[in-house]
Write a structure and sequence with these properties.
Low-confidence stretches: 1-12
Shape: globular
Order of helices and strands: HHHHHHHH
Radius of gyration: 18 Å
Helix content: over 70%
Strand content: under 5%
Mean pLDDT: 87
Structural class: mainly alpha
């Protein structure tokens, strides 16, 4: 949730968190190049750096009081691009792993696309809620992906992909009850509180 910060709410572009998110986007072509070249270890090395930046941009935005709507949306776009490249990496560099886990990947993809479509239909934008559950999933998918690709052990990977079902359900609930879109909502209980306060304010205005 964007705090009352007049500078931040003006979609500040040149902030450190936004630059970090932009770097993640910029790394995508390099990752794709390594995929095409079959350079699995270089791909994983750059991916590790990209995912590390994902872990710090949100923290820095809050720490530096530079939370912006632009930053929230940019982070979501960077996440989307990074996950797409990770999927492409599985398809090209570890095809057997991809085929074996394809059912779980379909579940995870559906868990991403359904909340997006619901939010697009209601608010015309990405969810970009960055809930606690979504953050847990994002943090967990990194070691799960590396364990699956490096050691061919996909048990944790499957668990994380299934956890995205809850992430998706919560985002749909949030979209359904929010009176208007806003990013950085910790969970459905925050959205419920916002909806309740909005209802009380509307009731007071009508009196």
């Amino acid at each position: 949730m964007i705090k009352n910060n007049q500078v931040a709410t003006q979609n500040l572009v040149l902030s450190l968190p936004n630059v970090i998110s932009a770097i993640r986007v910029a790394l995508a072509p390099l990752l794709i190049f390594f995929i095409v070249q079959g350079q699995a270890h270089l791909f994983l090395s750059v991916l590790a750096f990209s995912l590390f930046t994902d872990a710090i941009d949100g923290y820095l935005a809050r720490r530096l009081n530079q939370v912006t709507e632009l930053g929230i949306r940019l982070d979501s776009w960077a996440d989307l691009i990074t996950y797409a490249v990770m999927l492409l990496g599985l398809i090209q560099l570890w095809p057997e792993l991809f085929e074996r886990e394809s059912n779980y990947l379909v579940i995870a993809f559906s868990s991403w696309i359904v909340p997006l479509l619901v939010c697009q239909a209601r608010f015309g934008c990405f969810p970009s809620y960055h809930t606690f559950a979504a953050k847990i999933a994002a943090v967990s998918v990194t070691p799960a992906y590396f364990i699956a690709t490096l050691w061919d052990n996909s048990l944790i990977f499957r668990g994380v992909l299934l956890f995205y079902l809850w992430v998706a359900l919560e985002q749909v609930i949030i979209t359904s009850i929010l009176p208007r879109w806003q990013g950085n909502i910790a969970g459905f209980w925050v959205a419920a509180s916002l909806a309740r306060n909005h209802g009380e304010d509307s009731g007071s205005d009508s009196e």
